[in-house]
Amino acid sequence: MSTSAIKKFKVVSDRLKKEQKQLTAVATNIHLQAMSSDKIRNDITDVITEVFGVLKSEIQGRSRKRPIVYARHTYCMLCHNLDPESTLEKTGKSIGRDHATILNSIRKCNNLRETDLKYSAMFQVCVDKLTDKVGEHDMSKVTMKPHQEEMKRGKLAAQLLDEFIIIWGGERLVGRYHENNQPLIEAFNDLKSRAVEHGF
Length: 200
Fold this sequence. Notes:
Blueprint: H1 3-32, H2 37-52, H3 56-60, H4 66-82, H5 88-94, H6 99-115, H7 117-134, H8 146-174, H9 182-197
Helix pairs in contact: 1-7, 2-4, 2-7, 4-6, 5-6, 6-7, 8-9
């Protein structure tokens, strides 16, 4: 692979990672705000019609003109990524298509994002506008539901376990894990205190 091809691949890869991170943040905010599927689809449609310069009826229609097809691909991709209650069938029903067509649209959208700079820029504008529309959500004001508390607790347990493995693995690598090893004992006691502090 040539140097220019490697650079181009890296640029595309970095851009896609940034887009995915942004889409995840928007999806999280949508979930936290408990937006309905209809509201999400309407917001997505409003943004796409503005960015691509097409009508809502054209996205739902049968036209094969490039701007309309690209807008339709974007709609399918964003609904799939941002609506927590969306399925391929529901997205398809909203624009008069079947689930296989929606899946194909998502694949084409991914390919276009990787290969077509103009389309990629328009897709990014859509993501930016949706980010602005949904807004930032203050996580400190979110009251967690019981299952969310359990998930948070599970993540903490996983972090403590990871630290245990790092401490133990480090000691095993240098072969110093006998019972008189004071730094190892202190590290494990510290880890134990933190675990007890969090109720483990």
